[in-house]
Amino acid sequence: MKCPFCYGTSLKVIDSRDSVDANVIRRRRECQDCQKRFTTFETVELSMQVLKRDGRYEDFKQAKLVQGLEAACHHTKISRDQVNVLAGNITGEIMQRQERVITTEKLGELVMDALRKLDPVAYIRFACVYRRFKDIDEVVREIKINVKENVPCP
């Protein structure tokens, strides 16, 4: 690893702690050459493949999962920290299965199950993209089936 400021390689770890996401370690580092400090995050490298709908394989990337969750949760009551924890929980669930390949269908179902419990708007946003609804009737049907029964009355 190199310093992002001077590209020096003499680095010292000053502080190390678990991040909000249990699968990440946050490290505060100091460059011994320029004395500037910066933060790095260590994650577990998963040697897992995602089987896409078109038959291609892609490496599983938790960052991509976080990106999809953030898009679905934008302007909802779900915070960025909650998104990171949710992504960590989903990743942990996938890791527990000890499978080398997961389909996008199974991954999408895991995400929708988690979002359904947290926020109906985030769930519908994700479902619209994941299920590729063709018209408003399909969206309304999804709301009637999966959202109304899970929404607490005010």
In words, what does this structure look like?
The chain is α+β, with helices and mostly antiparallel strands and 154 residues long. It folds into two domains: 1-43; 49-150. The chain has five helices and six strands, in the order E-E-E-E-E-H-H-E-H-H-H. The strands form two sheets. The protein has a three-stranded antiparallel sheet, with no helix packed on it. Strands 5-4-6 form a three-stranded mixed sheet. Helix 2 (80-97) crosses helix 3 (104-118). It is elongated. The mean pLDDT is 86.
Helix and strand arrangement:
Layout: E1 11-18, E2 24-31, E3 37-43, E4 49-51, E5 57-59, H1 62-73, H2 80-97, E6 101-103, H3 104-118, H4 120-131, H5 136-147
Parallel strand pairs: 4-6
Antiparallel strand pairs: 1-2, 2-3, 4-5
What labels would you give this structure?
about 150 residues; alpha+beta; three-stranded antiparallel beta sheet; 5 helices; about 45% helix; elongated
| Annotation field: number of helices | 5
Uncertain parts = none
Could you give the distance between the termini? 52 Å
Give me the secondary-structure category. alpha+beta
Q: How large is the share of residues in beta strands?
A: 15-25%
The largest pleated sheet is described as: 3 strands, antiparallel
Instruction: Please indicate the count of domains.
Output: 2
How many beta-strand elements? 6
Which word captures the global form? elongated
What strand line-up does the widest sheet have? 1-2-3
Could you give the order of the helices and strands?
Answer: EEEEEHHEHHH
Which bin fits the share of residues in helices?
A: 40-55%
**Rg, Å, rounded:** 19 Å
Mean pLDDT: 86
